[in-house]
Amino acid sequence: MTERAGSALLIATLLLFGFLNRTAYKGYFQDDDLDTLSWAQVTPARIFLVGLLNPVAAPANFRAVPAFYYHVIGASFGLDFPKYLIPLQAMHLLNICLLWLLLRKLGIGPLASSAGAFFFGLNAVVFDAWWKPMYVFDVLCCTFSLATLLLYACDRWILSLIAFWLAYKSKELAVMLPAVLVCYELWLGKRRWLRLLPFLAISLSWGLQALIRNPGRGTAYELRLGFAAQATTIRFYATRLSRPPYAVAILLLLPVLIRDRRLWFGFALTLLMLVPLLMLPGRLFAVYWYVPLPGLAIMLATMADGRYRLAAAIFLLLWTPWDFFKFRHEQRDNLRLEAQNRAYVTELARFAKLNPAQRLFVYDGTPENFHWWGITGTVVCVNRVSGVRALSIWDPGARAAILLTFA
């Protein structure tokens, strides 16, 4: 296949993505979106710059790059939801293109590269990444991670180092990127180890800080090691990727059966980027596959480019209908839930605007998967106030707080 034909297939993938996701603009915010918007909009810009440049791991998971994104987009668009999806989906399309370029740089042909880009770009496992703005953290981390790998492969190691820093400042699992680069040098590069030293030094510093300080201790972000913790996380991510889950075991055999270093590199990318996620049994979401998924795409593209192209073609023929079925299922579920969010938040915002002095909200029922921080976030976003409290009618002290308010 010619380069032009491969580029045409890539463009077809991008257009298909746009067509399939046209209904996303009927969706609405999640509670996490509203919570992040509530503080990101009022945080001074210099705080984001300090957070970006600070080499010390943030104690409260302050991810400067996506947080600044919320700062800018929230100030620009308020609660106009469709305008949040345009840049989010544009970033996902950029990631598809970056992956395609990386595959071509690895020497994979245009057709096989397009197959890998298709597998990544339309994979329903990470549907939420381009449907819900709250996952811009993962999307940006993937953008800068792919940029790190592509720039490094193009011998632009200083720019690659900058991209690595931005990837980590988007989400912490990018701490494993230097280990991925070690694998690249070992199997595909020229074994120029000196240029890896700054990557490894930065990664080691951040990794040790996370292990020693464990800033998420006592919360869902706490790092946990042990049989029970890893059994939980491995089972979860395996079942989200494949049913039955033991089919994932085939992935472990591929590097043994297929002696292609590009496939080894893809396997290493997948496994290494999963490592931080496997230590977080309190944070289990299928969309977290988004950053490791390009590794699986590299493995598939490698197979499609060599003697195993028939196996890759059969896999895609079987996988695509299942993926589109799951895609439609995710669309229906999200539209149903987000319609509830839209109605609830619209009415809450109207009430908050009419009662700007109100700081206490006692609620009896919310939309499915909507929490108190979404209520406080909505009020803060609408009135730009602080000190807002939201209590369930069943919370201890809720009734006393009501009586005190009207005393």
Task: Give the strand content.
Answer: under 5%
User: Runs with pLDDT <50, length 5+?
Assistant: none
Q: Count of DSSP helices? A: 17
N→C terminal distance:
78 Å
- Rough shape? globular
Tell how many strands the DSSP assignment holds: 2
Order of helices and strands: HHHHHHHHHHHHHHHEHEH
Major β-sheet profile: 2 strands, parallel
Question: How many structural domains in the coordinates?
Answer: 2
Radius of gyration: 22 Å
Strand order of the largest sheet: 1-2
Helix content: 55-70%
Structural class determined from secondary elements: mainly alpha
Would you kindly provide a written description of the structure presented here, covering whatever features stand out?
- It is a single chain.
- With 407 residues, the chain is mostly helical.
- The protein folds into two domains: 3-325, no CATH class; 334-405, no CATH class.
- Helices cover 65% and strands 2% of the residues.
- It is built from 17 helices and two strands.
- The protein has helices at 3-20, 31-40, 45-53, 64-77, 82-105, 110-121, 136-153, 157-168, 177-187, 197-213, 227-241, 249-257, 261-278, 293-304, 309-354, 372-383, 398-405; strands spanning 360-363, 389-392.
- Strands 1-2 form a two-stranded parallel ribbon.
